[in-house]
């Protein structure tokens, strides 16, 4: 228990330090706009990766419709600030809650499916959500919404990134989270042990969708413009790659994956074709040579010596 | 009534293309339980080979029928080889890995083919040559039927019958059925599992390539991302008919084509893809084994 608390406090202190350093650099004008937007993009991708990891990595439910939930958050929060003049934090929350509700509606029927079938069903749902935006005149149809106020800044992104990591981490280490992990390990055995599998799958799905919605809202208020095609299944795959690269079932892995991939992406910005080729080769080679991802299911902890014993340690705490 | 018949004809001709792609999906899924996301992109490669070879043969001054036959055969051969190479390099090392890793690899291969296509061919759409000049026929007054539509249905039907014969009458077909039933037991019985899986990929990819050439001829266009949507739709068709069942894929494809043209013809063409996915989800939730799933347990 003590060790866990210490780990937590060190983690919070380090992240506060990172926040302050970057904030100071931004306010002193040392970081160029390019780097500020890259940092914000990394943080949004961390939110997306960590939240998808809860569904795919910890609960073992293969979902590839994350961009759909992201688009719900993006559109609703944009409408809230544009048409209803809601303050930004509230607009984000509205987007997040709407995405959660969509996660519930989609999750309850489709989580009865397993493996590939679930993957393809969530992909279908993501596409249906996109097609709905595409055909809704109120949100601009194919041309999308523009003129969204640019309210996303480093502070907001940082706050939501920390909330995401804390919520997912604490959830995973709670009784409910253990139930989710047991579903991943063996669904039939988990059910036989009296775990209400559908309930936990839906909970994980809803939490994941909530943060996807928030991330959508943040990115909408960063890029001024959103359109349905930026939330197609390519986007879902991008988030999936972050999670897989980092390691399915490792929050720190998702964070590393988000940083690495976003950097690769921005650095290769001038060569879009090569960028995607590298991206896909990375995916294939990764699966063949290191299917567990960079971190596997391990977590980065601040007692480096004890790495790899994370799960045993926490259950005893 | 005439209007309905017309839409039915259009739907069947669109549906046969889906059916051809779906046959490959179904075969690969039946044998190694993999949703081969790259299948739609093999379809694209097939279309491209067809485009290049059609232009090549046309310059040589062959008869249009022969140009068509040569280019469809060439694209089938090239895509079959490509399918086998992909299987050997990307999927074979993962034969015993988890389903998720192999699915992600398939997504990676799909990305690679798409972006490789954009890199080498360029992102813009190209015109597809009209290999056989289109002829319009008028039936019972206002119903139109063109030679292309007859050709599509004919080729699809021919290939499906051929496939059924291969699967049920030949030695490799028997091996495929055995491997899809139980890979390990088949291996113990002396069946070369790797060869059988490669053969499945070769046949499936060849069918996708044929569909690609036909698709290009029907819509007169080619672009490197053309495989994505037909690929997904064909998967829907395969699931609809019961994945792993060859006649199921055929019927599923036709069914999907008819639904699509119906949705378009009543004025909701933008919702067409949405309806296809909605059907997919409904089928998955209420009858995951597909329309023909329960009765026939045989899988290929």
What does this entry look like structurally?
The complex is a heterodimer of chains A (317) and B (300). Chain A has a domain at 37-231. The N and C termini of chain A lie close together (5 Å). Chain A is built from 13 helices and no strands. Residues 304-317 of chain A have low confidence and may be disordered. Chain A has helices at residues 2-27, 33-58, 66-83, 88-110, 115-134, 154-172, 175-185, 187-192, 197-223, 233-246, 251-267, 272-289, 310-316. In chain A, helix 4 runs antiparallel to helix 9 (197-223). Chain A is an all-alpha fold and 317 residues long. Chain B is mainly α. Chain B has one domain: ABC transporter involved in vitamin B12 uptake, BtuC, CATH 1.10.3470. Chain B has helices at residues 2-32, 39-60, 64-91, 99-121, 147-169, 171-181, 183-188, 193-219, 228-241, 246-265, 272-286; strands at residues 126-127, 136-139, 143-146, 221-222. Chain B has a two-stranded antiparallel ribbon with strand order 1-4. In chain B, a hairpin with a 3-residue loop joins strand 2 (136-139) and strand 3 (143-146). The longest helix of chain B has 31 residues, at 2-32. The model of chain B is unreliable at 295-300 (pLDDT under 50). Classes of the chains: A mainly alpha (317), B mainly alpha (300).
């Amino acid at each position: 228990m003590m060790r866990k608390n210490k780990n937590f406090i060190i983690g919070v202190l380090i992240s506060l330090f990172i926040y302050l350093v970057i904030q100071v650099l931004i306010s002193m004008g040392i970081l160029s706009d390019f780097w500020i937007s890259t940092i914000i993009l990394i943080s949004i991708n961390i939110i997306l990766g960590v939240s998808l990891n809860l569904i795919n990595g910890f609960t073992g439910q293969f979902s590839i419709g994350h961009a759909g939930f992201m688009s719900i958050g993006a559109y609703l929060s944009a409408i809230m600030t544009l048409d209803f003049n809601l303050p930004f934090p509230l607009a984000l929350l509205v987007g997040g809650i709407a995405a959660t509700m969509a996660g519930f509606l989609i999750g309850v029927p489709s989580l009865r499916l397993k493996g590939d079938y679930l993957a393809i069903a969530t992909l279908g749902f993501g596409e249906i959500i996109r097609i709905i935006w595409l055909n809704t005149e109120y949100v601009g149809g194919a041309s999308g919404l523009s003129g969204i106020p640019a309210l996303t800044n480093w502070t907001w992104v940082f706050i939501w990134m920390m909330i995401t990591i804390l919520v997912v981490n604490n959830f995973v280490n709670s009784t409910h989270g253990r139930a989710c992990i047991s579903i991943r390990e063996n669904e039939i055995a988990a059910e036989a042990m009296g775990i209400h599998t559908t309930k936990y799958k839906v909970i994980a799905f809803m939490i994941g969708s909530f943060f996807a919605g928030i991330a959508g809202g943040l990115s909408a208020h960063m890029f001024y413009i959103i359109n349905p095609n930026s939330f197609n299944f390519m986007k879902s795959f991008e988030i999936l790659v972050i999670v897989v690269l980092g390691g399915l079932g490792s929050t720190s892995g998702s964070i590393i994956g988000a940083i690495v991939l976003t950097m690769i992406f921005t650095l290769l910005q001038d060569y879009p074709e090569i960028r995607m080729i590298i991206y896909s080769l990375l995916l294939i080679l990764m699966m063949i040579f290191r299917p567990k991802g960079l971190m596997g299911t391990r977590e980065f902890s601040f007692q480096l010596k004890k790495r790899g014993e994370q799960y045993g340690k926490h259950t005893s705490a | 009534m005439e209007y309905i018949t017309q839409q039915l004809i259009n739907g069947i001709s669109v549906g046969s293309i889906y059916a051809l792609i779906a046959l490959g999906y179904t075969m690969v899924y039946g044998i190694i339980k993999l949703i081969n996301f790259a299948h739609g992109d093999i379809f694209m490669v097939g279309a491209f080979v067809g485009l290049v070879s059609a232009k090549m043969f046309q310059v040589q001054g062959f008869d249009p029928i022969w140009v068509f036959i040569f280019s469809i055969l060439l694209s089938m051969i090239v895509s079959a080889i490509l399918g086998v190479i992909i299987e050997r390099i990307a999927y074979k090392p993962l034969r015993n890995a988890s389903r998720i890793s192999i699915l992600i690899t398939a997504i990676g291969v799909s990305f690679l083919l798409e972006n490789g296509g954009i890199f080498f061919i360029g992102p813009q759409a190209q015109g597809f040559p009209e290999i056989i000049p289109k002829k319009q026929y008028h039936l019972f007054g206002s119903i139109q039927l063109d030679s292309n539509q007859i050709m599509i249905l004919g080729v699809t039907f021919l290939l499906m019958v051929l496939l059924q014969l291969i699967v049920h009458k030949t030695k490799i077909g028997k091996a495929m059925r055995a491997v899809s039933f139980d890979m390990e037991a088949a291996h113990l019985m002396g069946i070369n599992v790797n060869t059988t899986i490669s053969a499945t990929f070769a046949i499936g990819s060849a069918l996708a390539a044929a569909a690609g050439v036909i698709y290009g001829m029907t819509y007169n266009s080619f672009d490197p991302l053309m495989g994505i949507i037909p690929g997904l739709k064909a998967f829907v068709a395969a699931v609809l008919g019961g994945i792993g069942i060859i006649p199921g894929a055929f019927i599923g494809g036709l069914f999907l084509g008819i639904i699509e043209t119906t949705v378009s013809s009543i004025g909701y063409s933008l919702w067409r893809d949405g309806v296809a996915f909605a059907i997919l989800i409904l089928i998955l939730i209420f009858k995951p084994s597909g329309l023909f799933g329960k009765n026939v347990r045989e899988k290929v």
